[in-house]
Amino acid sequence: MMKLGPLGCDDSSGKTWEEMGGSDRISHILVSFDDKNLKSIQFGYVKNGALVMSKKHGSSDSDSTGIVRLNQDEYVTGLSGSLGYYGGITNFLFHTNRGKHGPSANDDTYAPCPKIEIDPSILDRREFGGFFGSYSSSSITSIGNYVNPIPCSHGVTKHEKL
């Protein structure tokens, strides 16, 4: 398993979290935010045909909540966002095999840093391993994802000069 990212500041003074659903499929991602930062994140998994919610990671104080609902054939392939003035993440999007999902904390006024994209080129649901990150008392301060590379179904050809 490889750890990619994080997007944001991996602040050692904050609390860390990780979500690794194993064979359970992520079906919902709940994100709370205000006009400045991503405040909290929570995941819904399909386990034995039922929706099971993860622990909520981050602050319980927010202005808005968005729900990303993934279709049965949809899976996460990456993330993008910017580091905001207040140490949180702004302009945050989830990337899937069907597009990009947001919005959350989309005010460019609070994003002094350029947008960062974590794109591990996931081509198969089995490659996505989960999420990790950190949060402070007021916002999510970092988020990244785990990737579990799977072997190619075709052989690798080595070319040598003779």
TrEMBL record:
The keyword Magnesium does not apply. Keywords: Lectin. Residues 1-149 form the Jacalin-type lectin domain. One of its GO terms (molecular function) is carbohydrate binding. Pfam families: Jacalin. It comes from the Eukaryota. Belongs to the jacalin lectin family. PANTHER family: JACALIN-RELATED LECTIN 24-RELATED, JACALIN-RELATED LECTIN 3. This is Jacalin-type lectin domain-containing protein. It comes from Brassica carinata (Ethiopian mustard). The lineage of its organism: Eukaryota, Viridiplantae, Streptophyta, Embryophyta, Tracheophyta.
